[in-house]
Design goal:
Layout: E1 3-7, E2 10-13, E3 18-25, E4 33-39, E5 46-52, E6 58-60, E7 68-73, E8 78-83, E9 92-99, E10 115-116, E11 120-125
Parallel strand pairs: 2-11
Antiparallel strand pairs: 1-3, 3-8, 4-5, 4-9, 5-6, 7-8, 9-10, 9-11
């Protein structure tokens, strides 16, 4: 079965940086889309950044543009999210997700993603 395991979360001060990693296990054919999503207490899960398999196009939420960078290493089956200039409003549990259904682009809607990790907590203090 496909398993996704996030790591790299933690507590940082506003303006700091974190690099999240997501390792994928249990599949051999790669993916079409991978992405990072986040969910704060009492709020709906929202898309942060996505990338098309094979190093294709990326999509970012407006809140992430200019600060976050998504990338992947297909040989290692690992997804990354570099987060710079963190703000208190970035505080949330961050999840990686993947979906292998063929599509033209990778959207930011969580409902489009089939496989999910357990999440890693990011806390940004002011």
């Amino acid at each position: 079965q496909v398993q996704l395991v996030e790591s790299g979360g933690g507590s940082v001060q506003a303006g700091g940086s974190l690099r999240l990693s997501c390792a994928a296990y249990g599949y051999n054919y790669g993916t079409i889309c991978m992405g990072w999503f986040r969910q704060a207490p009492g709020k709906a899960r929202e898309g942060v950044a996505t990338i098309y398999g094979g190093g294709g196009s990326t999509s970012y939420a407006d809140s992430a543009k200019g600060r976050f960078t998504i990338s992947q290493d297909n040989a290692k089956n690992t997804l990354y999210l570099q987060m710079n200039s963190l703000k208190p409003e970035d505080t949330a549990a961050y999840y990686c997700a993947t979906d292998w259904r063929l599509r033209a682009y990778c959207g930011l809607d969580p409902v489009e993603y089939r496989y999910w990790g357990q999440g890693t907590q990011v806390t940004v203090s002011s």
